[in-house]
Amino acid sequence: MSSPSLSEDSCSRLSPHFTYGSISIRLVYQRLNELLQSLDNKKDLYSFKKRLYWHCHFVQKLHTEPELEFNSMHRMCDELRTEHDNEMIDKWIKGETGFPFLDACMKFLKINGWINFRMRAMIMSFASYNMWQPWQKTSPLLAELFTDYEPGIHISQVQMQSGVTGINLPRIYSVVKQSLDQDPDASWIKEQIPDLKNIDKTKIHSAELGELYKEKIVDIKSSAKKARELIWQIRGKADFKKKARAVYELHGSRKRSAS
Question: Within 13 Å of residue 72, how many CA atoms lie on the same side as its CB?
């Protein structure tokens, strides 16, 4: 789920089949349970099984409240980002942000129509927090790139990574940290962006490339700090907390009661 290079082979890659119905989740779930009985190391498959549950849970959110295609799950969050910058959004979707790892992810996605979960979360986090753009403007553009686009999952995840559900804690992904963690040698980045093949990996990870690469569209630290302050400012209001409880009652996951 984390590394964009390793995930090409390690992820199930079943999501497009689920989207278009060529393979049912029920069939995969049944085969998975059969396989689990014969294995000693079950950790990864149990994690995969959870994702099957989450798939259905997220789809149900949109079925329950179709307005989520346009409105934040917590309506007060629509007050956060009232303006948008088309030029900035255009650079983001084209992979021209000035941050090599993020740009590499966008270029990979445009070519392959798929990228792993953590990178999807990082891409959206950057747009909503660092760029501070309304998810209603960026979400449809991102959706067009996914061959496994499923509205219920995409919209719920977009809102989670934008901090507008009211029931999920805001999580701001650091593009620089993810670059170091997921592609320490910068080999995957260089594969996606050949112009950087002769550049030192330290410069690539830090995005301090000067004229060697595109100008950064935001300052990563100050933009994250400002976003964090604005998000927690609204989350601290009494009205926000009251409405967040109502959102949870409608959309929150439920633990099974003990039998």
Answer: 26
